[in-house]
């Protein structure tokens, strides 16, 4: 079979691990991904597709589908020619806006509640540690969400999953606000995480549906901007609401429900089904059945644990270590900010302590706009040095200074100036901002490396990284305040810095040995 377009190949690459395509082993090539380390130009993805397409024509290869699936299952993986011009530029921008707003909800709901931790714990007659554990549960469920959202949206379509998740996110937010006991608070907070995080994977699929490969980076940047504004704006809004009255913490969740409802109306009116043909439609077309709802477990390739399996590849495991170091340090700093700065600077109003969240949040937002460009610049530089040959690990050279020096040192200065009560407010604020910039100079390179290093896994590779990232965030949310209360903010920051240096060591291993690891274990 011949491939009709680059968009089709991208669509094929996003299928779950359970359905793997191979080319017959002619001329020593068994998979298009083996073309990855061939000599390529700067537009490397398009060159890879051209090389692999020429191999297919030369060998007149046909697809072989592993497993004992029916002919209907085989038809699910036939590529479809995608017309990326079927939507106008303005329509595409509107769809990106809708996706970015949805991606804003989950981090907003994670961080906005932090200024209210002491107030919520008092009303439920518990401790701040217990409420922070609810944030940890939230992060665990966030890790699970992409495991289910991506395969379901691939089978039933982006629009239906997008709308259902917005409905349940908004309803869960209202029910958290109406919570009468701690158990109700925990359960519906977890459901907020489950439905709110689905937009990361579904939004990325929408971008892949409507943009050509060479245009996707800019669109994905806007979605990332939506996810970065939440951590900086959420605590400030939460602090302002708490300042208005102790019982007003519930308004935080009503506000999130309102934002979800607005996003739901926008999506219901303006968001079409962006996939050219869903897998369910393909089953109906090939089988002749007129059923409008089919069982994904029977007709689809539904493997929610494929993202976890992707972490068994050594290169992705090391990338996971990097993600753990970054996320753990981030949430250890963000979770207990008010417990740390309020007594240190004698702050009595929640809004004052909440303003400290603007420092790292502004750093996250600022770093988003050039972090990806920095890694692209390193890739182009090393392509020239290698006379046109591109190695995915070269992208990670861009994070050596931010991850190995800037972030851990900023973390140490932040922690020990608060511990020793030196430098006033200015020093910790400055280094929280610098640490935020360093972090978002690292994440874009890390995400792109996951895709570049294992192109046959595509979204699954990034999903695995997000999975372990959210698990680390959950652990950090649960232990941050306990550590600070027992050993102090200085030593807690020191532990986080050593974790960052461990992540840095993983980057160095990947830069030096990553290519050999991929060749050995691909």
UniProtKB/TrEMBL annotation:
Any single Pfam family the record assigns to this protein: MFS_1
Gene3D superfamilies the record matches: MFS general substrate transporter like domains (1.20.1250.20)
SUPFAM superfamilies: MFS general substrate transporter (SSF103473)
Domain of life: Eukaryota
Any one of the GO CC terms: plasma membrane
Region of interest called Disordered, as start-end residue ranges on this chain: 1-28
Domain Major facilitator superfamily (MFS) profile: from-to ranges: 95-520
Subcellular location: Membrane
Membrane topology (UniProt): Multi-pass membrane protein
MF-aspect GO terms: transmembrane transporter activity
Transmembrane spans: 94-117, 129-148, 160-180, 186-207, 219-242, 248-271, 307-334, 354-375, 396-414, 426-446, 466-484, 490-511
Keyword terms of this UniProt record: Membrane, Transmembrane, Transmembrane helix
Primary site of residence: membrane
Protein name: Dtr1p
UniProt organism field: Sugiyamaella lignohabitans
Encoding gene (name): DTR1
């Amino acid at each position: 079979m011949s491939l009709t377009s680059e968009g089709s190949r991208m669509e094929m690459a996003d299928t779950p691990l359970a359905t793997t395509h191979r080319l017959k082993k002619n001329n020593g090539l068994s998979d298009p991904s083996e073309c990855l380390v061939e000599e390529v130009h700067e537009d490397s993805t398009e060159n890879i597709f051209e090389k692999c397409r020429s191999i297919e024509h030369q060998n007149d290869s046909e697809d072989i589908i592993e497993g004992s699936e029916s002919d209907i299952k085989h038809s699910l993986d036939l590529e479809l020619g995608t017309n990326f011009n079927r939507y106008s530029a303005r329509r595409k921008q509107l769809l990106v806006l809708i996706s970015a707003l949805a991606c804003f909800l989950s981090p907003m709901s994670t961080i906005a509640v932090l200024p209210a931790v002491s107030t919520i714990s008092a009303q439920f007659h518990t401790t701040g540690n217990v409420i922070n554990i609810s944030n940890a549960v939230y992060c665990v469920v966030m890790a699970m969400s992409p495991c289910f959202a991506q395969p379901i949206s691939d089978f039933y379509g982006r629009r239906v999953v997008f709308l259902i998740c917005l409905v349940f996110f908004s309803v869960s937010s209202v029910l958290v606000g109406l919570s009468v006991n701690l158990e109700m608070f925990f359960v519906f907070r977890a459901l907020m995480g489950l439905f709110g995080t689905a937009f990361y994977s579904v939004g990325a699929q929408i971008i892949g549906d409507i943009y050509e490969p060479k245009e996707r980076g800019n669109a994905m940047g806007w979605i990332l901007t939506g996810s970065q504004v939440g951590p900086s704006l959420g605590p400030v809004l939460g602090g302002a609401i708490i300042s208005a009255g102790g019982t007003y913490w519930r308004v935080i969740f009503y506000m999130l429900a309102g934002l979800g409802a607005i996003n739901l109306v926008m999506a219901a009116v303006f968001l079409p089904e962006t996939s050219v043909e869903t897998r369910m439609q393909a089953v109906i077309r090939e089988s002749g059945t007129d059923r409008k709802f089919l069982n994904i477990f029977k007709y689809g390739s539904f493997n929610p644990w494929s993202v976890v399996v992707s972490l068994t590849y050594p290169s992705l495991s090391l990338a996971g270590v990097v993600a753990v170091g970054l996320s753990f340090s981030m949430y250890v700093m963000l979770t207990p900010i008010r417990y740390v700065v309020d007594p240190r600077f004698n702050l009595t109003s929640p809004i004052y302590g909440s303003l400290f969240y603007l420092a790292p949040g502004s750093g996250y937002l600022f770093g988003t706009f050039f972090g990806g460009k920095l890694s692209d610049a390193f890739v182009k530089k090393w392509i020239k040095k290698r006379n046109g040959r591109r190695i995915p690990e070269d992208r990670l050279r861009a994070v050596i200074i931010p991850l190995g020096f800037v972030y851990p040192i900023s973390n140490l200065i932040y922690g020990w100036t608060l511990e020793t009560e030196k430098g006033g407010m200015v020093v910790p604020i400055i280094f929280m901002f610098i640490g935020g910039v360093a972090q978002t100079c690292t994440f874009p390179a890390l995400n792109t490396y996951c895709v570049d290093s294992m192109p046959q896994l595509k979204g699954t590779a990034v999903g695995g990284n997000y999975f372990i990232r959210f698990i680390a965030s959950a652990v950090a949310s649960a232990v941050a305040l306990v550590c600070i209360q027992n050993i102090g903010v200085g030593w807690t920051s020191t532990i986080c810095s050593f974790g960052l240096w461990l992540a840095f060591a993983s980057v160095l291993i990947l830069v030096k040995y990553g290519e050999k690891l991929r060749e050995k274990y691909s």
